Amino acid sequence: MTTSPQRAETARLVKEAADIVTVIGEHVQLKRSGANLKGVCPFHAEKTPSFMVQPERQTFHCFGCGEGGDVFTFVMKYHNLTFPEALQELAQRFNVTLPERAGGGGQDQEQAQKRQALLDANEQAAILYHRLLLEAPEAADARAYLAKRGVPAELAERFRLGYAPNRWDFLVKALPAAGLDLEMALAAGLIVKKEHGGFYDRFRDRVQFPILNLSGQIVGFGGRILGDGQPKYLNSPESPVFEKGRVLFGLYQNREAVRQARRCLLVEGNFDLLALLAHGFANAAAPLGTALTPAHIRTLKGYCDETILLFDGDTAGEKAATRAVPLFLSEQVTARVVLLPGSHDPDTFLAEYGAEELTKMLA
């Protein structure tokens, strides 16, 4: 593959601006080791750190699995991106202006453009849902529901919660009006194609939880229905920007609290996570209605030394904990299980017993 002089020069400028220690240090706990820095590798299971970052050369290398390269290699591998996507993300992060077609042409560039279009569709949907929740009369029940669940306004704002109205064509009409392509909304899972032509909204009459990746981009949504319909919780389908097995709800917003505590409280549901935050437990994250995966655990180990599985005290919670423990063992990550009494989940336990009792259970 040939590289144009313009692309090479653009990559050089971005590489000079994007300090590899800063980029990797956001996801891996690095400690000084002579002239270099060392940490636990995010790409394979290990207990003893063998992942080295060399600031002088702006490179990394793992002596355990052999992964290595520069800042582009790391971002591509860690976030599952193509080179044009990694180039664009780092350029935006470090304020480097990209000339047109800096990422090159061909399939990779097309993939990067499609990915950005999906992210744009999700972002616009989040803006519309959030505005509706805050302002629309038809969202009154959603606001009352959040208040009943004890979600403070500041948390609703911080997590950009929204409301998908009980209409079949809200996004179908609103997204094109905002200049978005419905085919991209379809690919993002925001809308569904009708059998005989046209589209309809996937999310209807639901409180919407935007799902963010570790770059702060909205990759999907989780919706909790307000009425008696099914399913109670509905997530976006997987797409080129969204893999449920790689994303943890709330980790982006809570990453600094997790890093400072060196411990993550892993709960089952979105409302459990918001309840923890409302009661002062900021170091929390939640899988997206799916079983934990090795990718989830490798992500967590870059932020904390210990994970506490704070699962519901019912049979399903016990089974989930039983399935999760071997994964932590295989990834050589410290974890322990705290099962709540009776049929409580973190949300109901905190409502009945308060933060002090939960603190005792976590000690």
Question: Quick recap of the structure?
Answer:
This protein has 363 residues and is an alpha+beta fold. It has helices at 5-17, 20-25, 71-79, 83-93, 106-135, 140-148, 153-158, 170-177, 182-187, 251-261, 270-278, 294-301, 315-330, 346-353, 355-362, and strands at 31-33, 36-39, 51-54, 59-62, 68-69, 162-164, 191-193, 199-201, 206-212, 218-225, 233-235, 263-266, 284-285, 306-311, 334-339.
Secondary-structure element sequence?
HHEEEEEHHHHHEHHEEEEEHEHEHEHEHH
Report the average pLDDT across residues: 92
Total E-strand runs? 15
CATH T-level fold name of the largest domain: DNA primase DNAg catalytic core, N-terminal domain
CATH class of the largest domain: Alpha Beta
**Main sheet properties:** 5 strands, antiparallel
What is the structural class? Answer: alpha+beta
Distance between the termini: 56 Å
Number of domains: 3
Helix content: 40-55%
